[in-house]
Amino acid sequence: MGSGFSFHSRENPPSPELSLGDLPEGCVASVLVYLDPPEISRLSVLNRAFRGASSADFVWESKLPPNYDSIIRRVFDDFLPSDLCKKELYTRLCRQNSFDGGTKKAWLDKSTGGVCLSISSRGLTITGIDDRRYWNHIPTEESRFGTVAYLQQIWWFEVDGEVEFPFPPGTYSLFFRLHLGRASRRFGRRVCNSEHVHGWDINPVRFQLSTSDGQETISQCLLEESGKWIYCHVGDFVVEKFGVPTTIKVSMTQIDCTHTKGGLCLDSVLIYPSEFRERLKLF
């Protein structure tokens, strides 16, 4: 009595303590399927079980677009190694992958796996682009393509673009990325030359979007704010059919010939899942 000793019978030895590291990898992987890619990556450093489960093919296949095979063929043209595991494939697709001679880029959003696409100014048909009195391609670090088309002055402004891509089902928003004024670096600071900016606040720019399945959108806006990148929302389109490439046609025009317009940088056309629309306002 009061000795403070305890004992276990040989028939009932003490149970060893269990930890997360003792969970079977298959059970852990079944949980990781329901998490976002960044969460999976963070949990992979917990222990050996989570590290192994975080590389399971069925975990990462659930994060890939359902038609990722079609996207791979369109972007990589069969030049992607065929022995990549699904995690490596997801990582590769999250890079900004160039195709169509470097005039377009496609990538997956790292957090959601949503498909994003961009068409450079060199991948667009621009009226007068070959006449250096009107347009110039200028280098800049502020474009993912390394250059933008800079308009000095023109009477008739018209830009057209087209892309065919196997977008997975969903709703997508299309934008023109524009900048009034010419930005550069001086003594390590960003400066903007607005010398040639004129004519955009008189009449609105007209945007048009159409798809191969008959969707059409028309919008317009005045370009007024200089010195920052503007994401002009052209419209939205819906992809419903699985496995059928969608052709997107887009245009931007300002053809009022009563005045000239100039001082505009045209970077690219962006196509993002519509849930990212608010995110662009932060750029």
From TrEMBL:
Region (Disordered): 1-21
Pfam families membership: PP2
Protein name (database record): F-box domain-containing protein
Span of domain F-box: 17-63
PANTHER family: F-BOX PROTEIN PP2-A12 (PTHR31960:SF22), F-BOX PROTEIN PP2-A15 (PTHR31960)
